[in-house]
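User: Predict the structure for this protein chain, please.
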Amino acid sequence: MTPAARTQAAIELLDEILAAAASGGAAADTLIARYFATRRYAGSKDRRAVRELVYAAIRQAGPVPVSGRAAMVAVADRDPALAATFDGQGHGPAPITPDEPRAERGIAPDWLVDALTASGLDEAQQAALVDRAPLDVRVNSLATTRQAVLEQLPDATPTPLAPLGLRLASGTPIEQSDLYRAGLVEVQDEGSQLVGSALAAQPGEWLVDLCAGAGGKTLQIAAAMDNRGALLACDIDRARLQKLPPRAERAGATIIESRLLNPGHEAQMLSDWAGRADGVLIDAPCSGTGTWRRNPEARWRLTPDRLARLRMMQEQVLSIGAGLVKPGGRMIYIVCSLLDAEGRDQVAAFLAAHSGWSAEPVEPTVGTPHGPGRRLDPASHGTDGFFVACLRAPC
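Assistant: Here is the predicted structure, written as structure tokens:
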């Protein structure tokens, strides 16, 4: 592909990504993979170059651009070499005109910037939300040690806060490595490892991962339990939950039971666990504002209405989780969001509505204090953004 053809490909992909964001379609990574699956002539350098252009445009634009071309022109305005590829030759895009639309630079749509500011994030903290993220992995303590993995990954460095974490260069194909295939490491952001450890899982306990998804934190909990006890992993998303059994087999995590739940009937389907769990982990569905470094187009998917629906779901899963905890047991509430509406305020509302429940200090101490919990953010801690709180049931 010529440089101009790469620019045109990026514009076409941006148009697809914008349409998917508006309709709830596939994520940018998926769309990029599909695009090149039908264009075998594009080599690895072409794919990498186009991907870089696409994400540069996404990260730079705050409000939703009017088109993929508007997003790319805004990048070209600051890059003469890129601007030169708008030459109208062959498969290249038409020349740029002075008065054509440009995407507006920024962090996010205005209403989201206002919400982040009201949640206590300054300009530097907001800007870091759309930086590129590193690649972190968690060493599987059921199978090996961090030192042993370090000896096989000389380019890796220990993460500063998570005791089983390693940091690799972005783009490292770790999932194609023998280490990954043998179940010795799992891809997991350091922040995710830290908030997952707040459950303080112990061997022999009865624990529930209520919103397990594909099971990243479930595997972390199983390792902390040393495969002793009972661990129930639940979700309402069949496609995501189906990824857990093969991951558990690869990791050697033998105590996990997966359970698919029907929306609206979760409490009935979990009646055998009612009041029995030593601890419940709730990694609640949320806006994902703390993970924009990895999914920057997610800023364009979120609307006030969607945020309101997510808050209702969070309230529901907190209520379901509370019914599973035994007297004196604990519940860890996590969102990968930095909006107070989903974190601090959600926990405060739960405590006000559930007599006898209390918030306790999060252990290990992670992030910075924030209301009844603690918060991690990319600028302050070098991790994805999270809010975590530890809630104790009445005895």
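The chain has 17 helices and 13 strands.
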